[in-house]
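lol so apparently i was supposed to do this last week
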Amino acid sequence: MEKKEIFSQVIHMEERIGTFHDELGELKEQLAMLIEENHSLALENQHLRKLLEEKEAKEPENGTQASSGGTKSVGEGYDNLARLYHEGFHICNMHYGSLRTNGDCLFCLSFLNQK
Ligand SMILES: [Zn+2]
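anyway here it is w/ zinc ion bound
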């Protein structure tokens, strides 16, 4: 093999390693995003499970709930939503139940102030 040929092969390999390194960097970024997303979803899931448990504790007999459902006070529902919002979750139609990651949400606030 000629020296020139070997040299061009080394250059070529170097380029491939560079590309590979870039791809690795992108994958690392995506992995970080996925881990973050997974964390948010786990939190959200945990929170929703807690809400569900509370709801089930309050309504032990689902069969009779249908007839008495209309009597539940509006104030209680509002308090739950306000608490949910202050714990960092959306209560608006747009993103209901998901984590608020960018501070206050105007949709949620207008919903809260409506009542
Ligand atoms: Zn919202």
